[in-house]
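Q: What would this chain look like folded?
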Amino acid sequence: MNPSQQTTVTNARSEEDLVALLDRFAAAWNRHDLEALMSMMTDDCVFEASAGPDVNGERSEGKPDVRAAYAAVFAAFPDAHWANCRHFIAGHRGVSEWTFTGTQRDGKRVEVTGCDLFTFSDNRIAIKNSYRKNRPAIQPSPGRS
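A: My prediction, written as structure tokens:
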């Protein structure tokens, strides 16, 4: 095998591994499985939420802070779910597109499309930068409280 073929094979396998990582990551989000989520993140991981006071949203750094931010998502949306996940890899970066649905504690429902931009290190997620459409919550159905 010449060197260019070997590089292609190595990169293809790495991309497959990273897509599989993102599939497992999405599944862990839908299970609300904090242990699994954090096992796929680097120790010095960063999460930039889609909302917050800074230009890049609320920034959490390190496993304890990222875990707390992820737990806050599940607390705010007890039925949070991400559907239609599609993943793309380019070198050490990746993108996941999804549709988020969830119900806030006041009964208002959220349904938006969004994406996450990832940076990988050692086959784990070093940075998760989240973006989603800005859409008002949908009013609860009559009779729901």
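Residues 1-12 have pLDDT under 50 and may be disordered.
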